[in-house]
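fold-stage: in
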Amino acid sequence: MSTSSHPVGRRSFGRLALGVAAAAAGGTTLGACSGRGGSASPNAPLRVMAINHVWSQAIAGRVGEFEERVGRRVSITMLTSDQLANSYNVKLNASATDVDVMMVRALQEQLLFAHNGWLADLTDRVGDRAFDWDDFQEAPRERSITAGRVLSVPVVTERPALYYRRDLVADLGGPPATLDELMAMSLELADRRGGFFGYVGRGQRSGAVSQWSSFLYSFGGDFTVDGRSGIGTREAIAAYEYYGALLERTGPPGVTNMSLEQAMPIFAQGKAAFYIDADAIYTNFLDPTISTVQDTVGFAPFPAGPAGSRPHNIPSWSLGVNEFSLLRDDAWEFVRWASSPEMVAALQAEGIPGARESAWSDAATLASFPPELAETMRVSAERGIGHDRPEVLQVGRARDIVGRPLVAGILGQRVPGVARDADAEFADFLVRDNRHRES
């Protein structure tokens, strides 16, 4: 029996995705650390460390099935994202054996964990024909590989969605299909003196980078180009200028202090015509206790820019195996079970988007989503780019550098000069980051 289990509901997904989760009941402290080597007791539990998330809750509710399969008790500890990161830092630096399965963010932590030797190599295990590694979507699958080794298996995916007011765009020909149309409609619908905004989105320096990434890709840019900084390119500067103008001219005041938690309620309370953010948070707009737009909200794919519609499609959470675990075989069996085609299909049918192609091609697994959103997610998964932030060891520092021209644009400052300075800083950062990676 697991140490924590919670009821699963579709509405909880959006709320938990906002980081509202707290440590789950059943205790958050694991046993004392010990050095690598030795063998586990037959009675030792398989220890899973996870983010407190609707996916983890759903798995906890089903874990009895796995316990019967392997004949070993499973202990699941659920923490907030900050608590989880701190626990990994302490335990893995001490080569702790009391963590077996690790819920990780492949785009935020995997490079660093791989550099430190904390993740077991799963390459041979995912190669088992019965596991069907090729069934996983290409973009999340590629982000599971570091230096040619598979180090994690994606279990939750995420893409951007254009949330819009159907009642406001009905006379404008429907939702914007291009970024030019998004700008024009946002300007037309904005009434900032009256407290209504054309567009709301993240504007906080670091927090905005992941959602801005789809604008960057759709203008033809990327964070790095051939291993070098790409944020000073013509395409990146155009993306900075566009996003800055969109929020400066049609967005709310104080937007440079807004991340997800501040921007989302503005759309939910009916104060903006358009909003682009993670598709995972859609339930917030359908919940009458926090939303006034549940009857008018629409869902559409990311609008096309000069390079087309190029949203991100990322593994927001993945499972890895602790290199120091004494139960690596059972840990892998847990990963295999939790990411199996049957489990992914079952959880996606409950509104938790997975990473397997077979689930996305099965209409029954998408039935829990609003039809317009299901189609938006499907299209974005096909078009998606597999990262939404710089792929570096020190992700937080990189996002801070990349976000500086973004803020300048929102504040109405001239972007090219700021972008050139940030480009030079990011280029120097990449050199140092690569040295750390090679050391």
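fold-stage: in (second)
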Amino acid sequence: MFNKDRWNEILEALTANKFRTLLTAFGVFWGITILVLLLALTNGLKNGATVEFNDFATNSILTWSQGTSMAYKGLPRRRRFSYKLNDIEALKTEFPEIKYASPRNKLGGYRGENNVIRGTKIGAFGIYGDYPDYINQEPMDILEGRFVSYSDIEAKRKVCVIGIDVITGLYDKDEPVIGSYIEINGVNFMVVGIFKKPNSQGDAEEDANTIIIPFTTFNQAFNQGDRIYYMVITAYDAYDITELKESIFGFLKVRHTVHPNDMSALGHRDQSLDFKKMSGLFQILSVVGYFVGALILLSGIIGISNIMLISVKERTKEIGVRRALGATPWEIKSQILQESLILTIISGMTGVAFSAGIIWLMNYVLNENGPVQNFANPSVGLQVVFIAFSILVVSGLLAGLIPANSATKMKPVDALRIE
């Protein structure tokens, strides 16, 4: 237990040579600072990479049809085929593990030919036909109005939801948008909603230049019949879509008379697998951050241990007097350990505070200047602070252990003889 006299003794010992103490403390300060900043930067990279998914449901696959590479049941190789709308209901019936299965169709692109007209203004935008469930798979912020609904699907209403940059291209400032009409490839659609993708970075420009209309309306207006450009399939959280996809592909191959061993007929992108690979990479980076930070911190701890050994040697006569006056070996050892522990904790927590300031500054700059590609919100959790504190406590005790043992091995008579 600390008391006033003990605190005074510790303070006097640590301030006896201020410059030496500061240099020693700097090693621990710098080690903890590097450790926290490395973990914060790793989290920033992870957050930035996660943003690249645009909050897309990670337990999902995107799949589309491609040309067959094998002849099968009298049908030739290199045969082109398309997914059909009835594939969606068939999948939901066959696989109860599927939470959402959304068809998508696409027309044009925001860098393609002009396909949208409003009054005297024209523009090139990506036109998508979607089902209402799609907003659950790729979340969107509805800034005004609404998203497409199932009543729109059933009635094949000519309505649309537009991205924020469509407004910039087709509307004057402060002009009302909801309830207005735009012409897409000669067909008029009423605007019922405005959306923005949350935290979008990689394809932010394309997202903002997107127009979404009901899937059934899209197919009717643009002569797509019941064809699907691609579909997005999301499994319930209790199931892994990566484990389900082979069964799903096998089912789709049967429905479209594709050879079971034809690996190129169905294209796909596994969001779940991509996300797992990315998460694994950043787990490795976190381990590397801990390892590098621990090595730097170790050099600081060794410095504290060396300084404490020097301090014990300089105070040999003092220790001898205290032993002669009745101080027990444990009292001598505990003081040395406490001095080491306090020096380590103070310098280490100062490093934590300093690194927190740098992290705040990085986030301030990012907020003021906009997002950086593949980097967002560098931060560390409270668990990192607790881990850092635990490391400091253990390190402080270890740093003082050798000097403390050295001090208790002195015989009072021998210590008093030293000049």
